[in-house]
C-alpha cells in the first residue's frame, strides 16, 4: 500500500507542535533557572500555553482550558511570581509532560 492509496486521516493534532516546543523548553528550564535565559523560557512557555489553550477550545476539550490558563499565568514573564526551590524545579518537567499529553490528545476533525 503506497502513501497515495491510504485514506486521509480524519483528525489532526494542531497542539502537537507547540506542545513539543514547550516541552523542550521546559526540560531545559531547570538548567537555566536563575540566569538571563530563563526569562526567554518564561516567554516561550506562556505564549505556547495560550496557543495550546486556543487549540483545546477549538477542539472543544474544555478540561484543558484551566490547566493551560494556569500554566500561562504561572510562567508569565510580565508579572513573574518569585518561585524558587525544588518545587519550582520539579514544576518544569511536570509542565513539560502536561504539554506532551495535551499535544497528543487534543484533536480536531480535518476539514
TrEMBL record:
Q: Keywords for this entry?
A: Membrane, Transmembrane, Transmembrane helix
Q: Where are the transmembrane segments?
A: 15-33, 39-57, 62-81, 87-106
Q: Which domain of life is it from?
A: Bacteria
User: InterPro entries, alphabetically?
Assistant: DUF6804
Against Pfam families, the record matches this protein to: DUF6804
Could you tell me what this protein is called? DUF6804 family protein
Native organism is: Microbacterium arthrosphaerae
Amino acid at each position: 500500500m503506497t502513501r497515495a492509496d491510504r485514506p486521509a486521516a480524519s483528525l489532526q493534532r494542531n497542539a502537537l507542535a507547540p506542545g513539543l516546543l514547550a516541552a523542550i523548553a521546559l526540560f531545559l528550564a531547570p538548567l537555566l533557572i536563575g540566569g538571563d535565559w530563563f526569562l526567554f523560557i518564561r516567554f516561550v512557555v506562556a505564549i505556547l500555553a495560550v496557543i495550546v489553550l486556543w487549540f483545546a477550545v477549538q477542539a472543544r476539550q474544555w478540561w484543558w482550558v484551566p490547566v493551560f490558563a494556569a500554566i500561562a499565568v504561572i510562567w508569565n514573564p510580565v508579572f513573574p511570581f518569585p518561585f524558587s526551590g525544588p518545587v519550582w524545579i520539579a514544576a518544569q518537567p511536570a509542565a513539560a509532560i502536561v504539554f506532551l499529553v495535551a499535544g497528543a490528545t487534543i484533536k480536531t476533525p480535518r476539514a
